Amino acid sequence: xxxxxxxxxxxxxxxxxxxxxxxxxxxxxxxxxxxxxxxxxxxxxxxxxxxxxxxxxxxxxxxxxxxxxxxxxxxxxxxxxxxxxxxxxxxxxxxxxxxxxxxxxxxxxxxxxxxxxxxxxxxxxxxxxxxxxxxxxxxxx
Length: 141
Prior knowledge:
- The structure is a single chain.
- With 141 residues, the protein is of the alpha/beta class.
- It has two domains: 10-72, Signal recognition particle alu RNA binding heterodimer, srp9/1 (2-Layer Sandwich); 86-138, Signal recognition particle alu RNA binding heterodimer, srp9/1 (2-Layer Sandwich).
- Helices cover 16% and strands 37% of the residues.
- It is built from two helices and eight strands.
- It has a four-stranded mixed beta sheet, with helices on one face. Strands 5-8-7-6 form a four-stranded mixed beta sheet, with helices on one face.
- Strand 3 (56-63) and strand 4 form a beta hairpin.
C-alpha cells in the first residue's frame, strides 16, 4: 500500500453529553480540548432542533500524540458504541489503576483490572458516558 498513511483518529458520538465527556477526559487523561464547536454556532445550525443549539457539533481533544474527536449526534440518531473500545496503554501500573478507577466511576466494569500473563494490569470498563475503554499496562521487558 504505497502512497498511503494510516493515521487512525477516534471519533465518538454522544447523546447530548459530549461537552461533559470531553471535560472529564481532559482532566482524567491529562489532555487538552483544542476545539469545540456548537451546533448553533455552525453553518449547520438550521439542521439541529432549537434545544440542540448548545450541543457539540465537533470537538477535538489532544492526548499526547493522539487526537480524540467527538460530537453530539442529532436527537434520534444516537447509537451506543458497540464492537470496539478505546485502548489506553499506560506505562505505569499505578497510573493504570488511577485511570481505571476514574473511568469506572459511574460506569460499568466489564473486566476488573488484573494481572495477566501479558500485562501487569489489564481491564475493561464502559464509562458513565457509554464509551468502552480497555486499559493495558504491559509487563516490563
